[in-house]
Amino acid sequence: MAVDGDTFAMLREAVRRFVDERLIPAERRVAEEDRIGPELIAEMRALGLYGLSIPEAWGGLGLGMAEEVEIAMELGRAAPAFRSAVGTNIGIGSQALVLAGTEAQRRRWLPGLASGEIVGSFCLTEPDAGSDAASLRTRAVRRPDGAWVLDGTKRYITNAPEAGLFTVMARTSEAPGAAGISCFLVERDAPGLSLGRPDRKMGQQGAHTCDVILDGCVVPADALLGEREGEGFRVAMRVLDKGRLHIAAVCVGAATRLIDEAVAYGRTRRQFGRPIAEFQLVQAMLADSYAETYAARTMVRDAARRRDAGETVTLEASACKMFASEMVGRVADRAVQIHGGAGYMAEYEVERFFRDVRLFRLYEGTTQIQQLVIARELIKRAG
Ligand code: COS
């Protein structure tokens, strides 16, 4: 554990209250306006949410993974847009720096990311490189004066419209696949960097993605993460190992909320002279949802503890992400089913959650990529 038990208990309680009293009541407005108001962003900053996983030396709370997943489960009970606002700074937008940045790079960027003054984003995906991330085509060429020139387009980049720092994977050599990929820290005002229009999405309104276009984008020599070429892909994969565990925890939180909504509706909605929660076919849906959520929560806690103990959790993180994201899809579907026709109506929360949670099976690696990673790791371990 990275902070003492009492401090963590207080933080968790504060986040739980914040979710219940501030975030859940604001969900509908955020979805309608497709934006989180500045007052809520300020409160999230004050709570330290942006810096959960950033070491204390750089201004974060320095939580271990076991603690981080507990907070992610709390945040997951509210509309996913809120978690997304802080999610890149906690995960993919800061962890490359934490894992592989030089001392000077960490000192320069991590305090701003920890406070939320700077929003970080992670630029791996491209129009023609999604699941096959190692096929990315963005190039970085070193100029004689040491500066780098980046060219390429990054797609569906979470929080790019708000970001001040972009962690960009780009090819620095002719070496094929992963070996030729390096990682760069690119500032929002780097010449040659521009943003596409915000994407229109199925759900998660209030969370934003867009293209990041690098057109002769010039960055200084020290923008190369860790000062080493060819390390970018491996760093990105390590960042994703952690990110996948975090997303699995968010899925557990969302499933908890969906069960609460389904139970509450089932207790008040009456048919055939009784609350529908008394009918065994409805009860079966609640029971399956609870058991699957409990299984996912237990998996996430186990994998997080292993990571804190220094184990490589590539396999476990993918197993958690796969199981929890598929699980919350089933739970959301049952929650809609229990609501009947009302579940299809926008005035009930489950309709929005049903759309919101669909993304969890896609980003930070589709279910099919998690299957591939799990099987590969199993075979590797056996060998
Ligand atoms: N941790 C550390 N290193 C890793 C790693 C991990 N989890 N996974 C792979 N690597 C390393 C490998 O060890 C290999 O290194 P060497 O060249 O030194 O042997 C290198 O990275 C290439 O790995 P691999 O050969 O497995 O790469 P592949 O191209 O076959 O594909 C997958 C790897 C499919 C797993 C990867 O492309 C992937 O995760 N795709 C999904 C991308 C994704 O999640 N995108 C979401 C958008 S970002 S939010």
From TrEMBL:
Q: In which pathway does it act?
A: Amino-acid degradation; L-valine degradation
Q: Where is the Acyl-CoA dehydrogenase/oxidase C-terminal domain?
A: 230-378
Q: Which InterPro entries match?
A: Acyl-CoA_DH_CS, Acyl-CoA_Oxase/DH_mid-dom, Acyl-CoA_Oxase/DH_mid-dom_sf, AcylCo_DH-like_C, AcylCo_DH/oxidase_C, AcylCoA_DH/ox_N, AcylCoA_DH/ox_N_sf, AcylCoA_DH/oxidase_NM_dom_sf
Q: Which PROSITE patterns does the protein's record reference? A: ACYL_COA_DH_1 (PS00072), ACYL_COA_DH_2 (PS00073)
* Family of this protein: Belongs to the acyl-CoA dehydrogenase family.
Biological process annotations from GO:
branched-chain amino acid catabolic process
- GO MF term list: acyl-CoA dehydrogenase activity; flavin adenine dinucleotide binding
Q: What is this protein called?
A: Acyl-CoA dehydrogenase
Q: Which stretches make up the Acyl-CoA dehydrogenase/oxidase N-terminal domain?
A: 9-117
Q: Which Gene3D superfamilies match?
A: Acyl-CoA dehydrogenase/oxidase, N-terminal domain, Butyryl-CoA Dehydrogenase, subunit A, domain 2, Butyryl-CoA Dehydrogenase, subunit A, domain 3
Task: Return any one Pfam family short name.
Answer: Acyl-CoA_dh_N
Keywords, ordered alphabetically: Branched-chain amino acid catabolism, FAD, Flavoprotein, Oxidoreductase
Q: Which gene encodes it?
A: mmgC_7
